[in-house]
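Many introductory courses stop at the sequence. We go one step further.
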Amino acid sequence: MPATIICGMNEQDFETKQKKAERRINPMKKKKRNTTPLVGTLLQEIAPLIGAKVLMEPTWGIVGQIVYKSGRKRYIRYNTVDLNPVGASDIAKDKDWANFFMKKMGYPTVPGEAFYADWWCKAIGSERNLSAAYQYAKKIGFPVVVKPNSGSQGTGVAFVHNRREFYEAMRYIFTRDKIALVQRPIAGKDYRLVILDGELISAYERQPLSVTGDGRLSIRALLRKKQENFIASSRDTKIKVRDPRIAGKLARQGLAFSSVPKLGEVVYLLDNANLSTGGDSVDVTGAVHPEFKKIAIRLTADMGLRMCGVDLMVKSDITKAPGRYTVIEINAAPGLDHYAASGKKQEEIVKRLYLKVLKSLEKGL
């Protein structure tokens, strides 16, 4: 299949330029990068502070064993540590089930419904298939948000405006998940609050992937520059220029990769604000209103969790008393890789969090 051409540049060439930029900034970098997630790497670094050690399985680098001086052993897998109860963690991973319980407890959740891949409908005898999902989308009115029921890091989340976009996005989701959610869009500021044992550890506003114009460079060039900045700051995020959501977002704004934004003009390239897809974060840990802290702490406890990432969409600002807000979702194993890479302050916050996690695991609390 021929490569797609975007405004005179082959996308494969674009990505080749990204790789060259990475080698130019860090020429000693090996072709094969360390696959050990941040949690494993971080625990290996800080465990000696309390006399513990961490052994990572060497082939894949994603599972590890924590060994304490007492001989007690605990385990990690990706970003998951032996902290949250299994049942509560499994519920948190399932967005539809989590929404059910949060709504029953009185928390404002995103209006929406779950629908199933055709093969799963046949297996369970359900009529909530792709066609039913489209009828529901028409009922609540486009645009709608579609997302995998068990996904993370914004993968598969799409803001769709018509039948074609809807079916394309849903079919993509069903290649990865047997359940998809169709939801109403919620406007506001996107925040993640990380709670550990009844304490707010960190909070940050998440902003979608964007570029800021300088009046000279095209969006394509600004994206390349942004990627180079990620590499220079050791942020392990790759901007996926082939993501059709970017082209769609530009087209709806009457723009293309060759467009040159004005000086200071901010152009958003995605609707979701995940840091893993190139979004930016603004730390607000010290500015969260006390009532929002209480809400996040109470929700974490109500969902049976000790550690939780609570994602909120706030109509006004999280520094003010709660008015209109919505719980977007919760995460029992909040990935903090991209947050930690956003600055030294954030890195220290994450280190303190996992040092506390290590101590709690040792005590078996």
